[in-house]
Amino acid sequence: MRQIAYTCLAFNLFILLAVEPAVAAEGLRAGAAKVVITPDVHAAAVYLAGYGQNRVATGVHDDLYARCLALGVGRETLEVCAADLIGLFYDDVLKIREAMKTQAPEVTHLIVASTHDHEGPDTMGLWGPGPLQSGIDEKYMVWLRERITQAAVEAARSMQPARLTLARDDHPLLAMLQSDSRPPYVKDPYLFVMHLASESSGQTIGDLINWSDHPETLGGKNTEITADYPHWLCQYVEASSGGTAIFVNGSIGGLLSSNGGSVALQDPETGAVAADNTWRKAELFGNFIGKIAERTVKGGEAVNVDSIDFRGATIYVPLHNDRFRLAGANGIFGGRKPLYTGGRIDPAIIQKDVPGMGELNFSTGRDVRTEVSYIRLLAGARVAAEIVTVPGEIYPELVNGGITRYPGADYPDAPFEPAIREHLKSPYQFIFGLANDELGYIIPKAEYDDQPPWLLGRKERWYGEVNSAGPDVAGVVTGAIAKLIDGR
Ligand SMILES: [Zn+2]
User: Fold this and answer.
1) Handedness of CA 475, 479, 480, 481 (dihedral sign)
2) Domain-by-domain residue ranges, the chain?
3) At residue 238, does pLDDT exceed 70?
4) pLDDT, tens digit, for every residue of 335-357?
5) Is 273 helix (H, G, I), strand (E, B) or coil?
6) What is the secondary structure of 203-269 as a DSSP string?
């Protein structure tokens, strides 16, 4: 009897398994699209984002793009767009999602990430003509949101049955292309690729490449608009693969950078190391990452994704940065980033005497509202790939582990935040940085250093805290992510 029962069970399982492909046959669909988002440098002054203020664009070296990849399974459609921008605030992402509701309601989850390009228009307001003047051009922002929406709609409309190949690379050279300017010297060298090909023709639909580094190769003296190394990276992958390339930046806090003497790329034509702040270095850099991405896909793994599981959370992070309070209250963000107290908008503003600047508006709300998400691509019961969205520039030690206590830290006894990868389960762990928002640097509290003495007895303050919302951001962000991953 037992034997028969087992046989029947095995037979039933066989039928279930045999039926499976029929269900999966309507399985994964994918589409990709890109649109130009380069501002017109002749229509109005374009303030370039990153470095100092009042850096006005004088021309266009290469176009900026919004690039989108849509993945559909059943009723779920996940879309990932990456724009060649310094950062896009949550307010703008919510507006794009609103437009998508009417134009492409089939897209159930839209992620809009920024590559953190330091050679494009100021979409955050911080790099305008002067300290209290926003660099945001609202006319451009309206057009930009329309264009990103257009790319997202086109990618969703072009979805067709597709095959997914997942790939990862831990090439040692990848870490050598990330200069790290602040201890602990933890990097995030992992490069992940999603390669989508048409089920019918085999032609490439798109390649999504996820890797971590500041696109700032051209430096603060350049005045020509460029997407920096992602331009060459995407160009290389598109030429070799034939689809649309989408580059999504990763954990770039601690200032993982494409510049710096330690990032030594030898120019094969001259034999010399390509200098920082040159077009040649950006080109060699992008092509090199492109080649690694191409090689990685060749060794990739075909996966039959049959469902997408999306978990998201709205979170409130305490704001401790007075510079952001002044910026918000004085119109630098153009009305974006309202503050919240107890989960409600708190528009309260007081007058504050700022040394050297006089009485200024100062917002007093407690928190900034943002979101995190955790997405699983499932193949049956197996977690094939995972995506974590992070609303800013996260320090790699919050992703890979390695938070370190140093003398001089402001919170020497702060508990360590959870390391994100310790919670992830699959080999393909996509970390999307600057996704849906840009909160600035997300720094482990135990390493936070806004007050002297400076970490490790340094003479001047470390860069990082200047552009961080505060010491509690890391705990709220990584805590919420760990909770989503663990399903709590
Ligand atoms: Zn940055």
Assistant:
1) positive
2) 26-315+371-488
3) yes
4) 999 999 999 999 999 999 998 88
5) strand
6) -EEEEEEEE--B--TTTTT--EE---HHHHHHHHHHHHH-SEEEEEE---TTT-BS-STT---B-TT
Ligand 1 centroid to residue 115 C-alpha, Å: 10
Residue 59 Cα to ligand 1 midpoint, Å, equals 23
CA of 114 to the centre of ligand 1 (A): 11
- Dist. CA 180–CA 168, nearest whole Å: 22
Could you tell me the distance, in angstroms and rounded to a whole number, from the CA of residue 463 to the centre of ligand 1? Answer: 10
* CA of 251 relative to ligand 1 center, distance in Å: 10
**Distance between Cα 83 and ligand 1 center (Å):** 15
Residue 23 predicted with pLDDT over 90: no
Nearest to 94 by CA among 317, 440, 335: 335
Q: Give the helix/strand (H/E) hosting 394.
A: strand 393-394
How far, in Å, from the CA of 9 to the mean position of ligand 1?
57
Flag whether the pTM goes above 0.90.
yes
The answer to whether 250 and 211 are in contact (CB under 8 A) is yes
Ligand 1 center to 379 CA (angstroms): 35
